[in-house]
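Dear Dr. H.,

I hope your travels went smoothly. While you were away I took the liberty of generating a structure for the chain from your last submission, since the lab meeting agenda had it listed for discussion. I wanted you to have the full record in hand beforehand rather than looking at slides cold. The sequence, exactly as received, is reproduced here:
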Amino acid sequence: MYEKIIENNEAFEVMLICTTAMSNALSKAFTADAKKVVSFVGAAYSLDDATIRQCAKVILGDLMSLSLTNDRLAMYRGRGAENTYEDVDALFDMKANVMSKFERLPQQTPTLNAEWFNYSHYMAYNAIIRYDVLLQTATTGEVWPAMVSGVLTALGIGCEEDKGKAIERLKQCAMWGYTPAILLLSHVYALNGDDQSAADFKRIYTLCKKYMLLGKTELPKNEEANTFVKETFAVISSIFYDVVLGYCRPNINYSFVEAISSPSLSFTDIMHYINNFQGSQDNWRDVTNPSFTVSKRKLGF
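The corresponding predicted structure, in token form, is as follows:
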């Protein structure tokens, strides 16, 4: 019954992240908005209509019985080593993992209001208020809330629909090595009529899944791709391994992304700044906020 969802578990997890961030209580408004989000993500992952409907049914049906912290803890207490577990139990685990991560956000980022992701009680859903909460949370660089705010912006849930702003936000998540955001970014480009960018980022997503997740920061020479795709893959994978993991920086550094996105920089310049993320010379901050007159000398070779 759940085979198609299991086969497309990444898409389903993205749906869970978005809908769990939005609300933990059923209402007409939440149900309507959640279905829009599920359809949006499903389209980004090229899922067929029947699979998308099943994902929505499971998220808004079976998995809503797991909405509170106590539900999650009770589920685990009721399990035993000799129990027989099925696909639906794995889906409950996915929902529980998403809830747990959101609950830990205020501990990891003390400036956040702890009640924003407090699943000990049901939270009333209002799209405008929840969008504002996610937007404020995204300013800390937390990738999941940033991604969700990008999806909501693309759909106009809780805000005015703005594909340009959605592209900018999802690109920030993508540059920080969060691969699902790359595919969502491709989808928004397609909806915005930019077929070339949509195709490029879809290709980048495929290559990141194939190579970056295996620890590669450069594509094999026999892998065919245009220059933009090759260079963007190298930038994303290098940021992920050299900055996110290398310096333990899971939160998006928006200033850094803004700096290396400057059209005045060459690919060599960008890689130089990634390699010297914490260096004192040729500081990337001077690209957008120069503290002195920047030398016109060319970086790199």
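Two observations you may find useful: Confidence is low (pLDDT under 50) at residues 294-301. Residues 87-108 form the longest helix (22 residues).

With kind regards,
E. W.
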